[in-house]
Amino acid sequence: MRLHISEVRDGDVLANDTFNSYGVVVISAGATMTSNILDDLNKHKIDYIDIMESNS
User: pLDDT tens, 8-27?
Assistant: First the structure.
């Protein structure tokens, strides 16, 4: 599920690798989102990421 980073919550799990504008992986698939990771995404000007859908 594609979400704007403002909608992502601590504990969400990244579904796909996320790349910066130079094609370098910033966050790898399977990473659990934390406030530090979300800050890094902001620094790299990444607005949307793919989060794994929960089965709850």
Answer: 999 999 999 999 999 999 99
Tell me the domain boundaries of the chain: 2-50
Residues in the chain: 56
CA dist., res. 55 & res. 45, Å (int):
30
Residue 5 buriedness (CB in 10 A; 0-12 / 13-18 / 19+): middle
Tokens of 28: 């790898």
Q: How many CA atoms lie within 13 A of 37 on its CB side?
A: 20
User: What is the CATH code of the structural domain delimited by 2-50?
Assistant: 3.90.105
Cα–Cα distances in angstroms (integers) from residue 42 to residues 6, 39, 54, in the given order: 10, 5, 24
